[in-house]
Amino acid sequence: MMWILLALAIVAEVFATIMLKLSDGLSHALPVLGLIAGYALAFYLESQVIRMGMPMPVTYAVWAGGGIALVVVANRVLFSEPVSAWTIGGMALILAGVLVVQMSVTHQTA
Q1: DSSP codes joined into one string, the chain
Q2: How many CB atoms within 10 Å of residue 4?
Q3: Of 7, 13, 55, 68, which has the highest C-beta tally within 10 A?
Q4: pTM of the predicted protein model
Q5: Tens of pLDDT along the chain (110 residues)?
Q6: Which domain holds residue 48?
């Protein structure tokens, strides 16, 4: 259940980030409302995941890394923004960092 809530938190954060882009500098009310709602939901869900016992470093690393990766995909799909080899390499490094954080927390508690 923790992982499902964390995945939903990531989706909410990506939604909020897309709304940030659509708000055009916070000048359009509807995307601003979506931005506020998306971030509020994302932080609420992330807090519940931490409350359920997932270590905070793991929660935040997965949330941030997953959000970055999904924002890149969403920008490609929704706004036709290019994805370079550098972007893919950067996402691979983020994934590696998330895995290292997960392993370090797992080894500390074992």
Answers
A1: -HHHHHHHHHHHHHHHHHHHHHTTTTT-HHHHHHHHHHHHHHHHHHHHHHHTT--HHHHHHHHHHHHHHHHHHHHHHHH-----HHHHHHHHHHHHHHHHHHHHHHHHH-
A2: 10
A3: 13
A4: 0.86
A5: 999 999 999 999 999 999 999 999 999 999 999 999 999 999 999 999 999 999 998 999 899 999 999 999 999 999 999 999 999 999 899 888 888 888 887 766 55
A6: 2-109
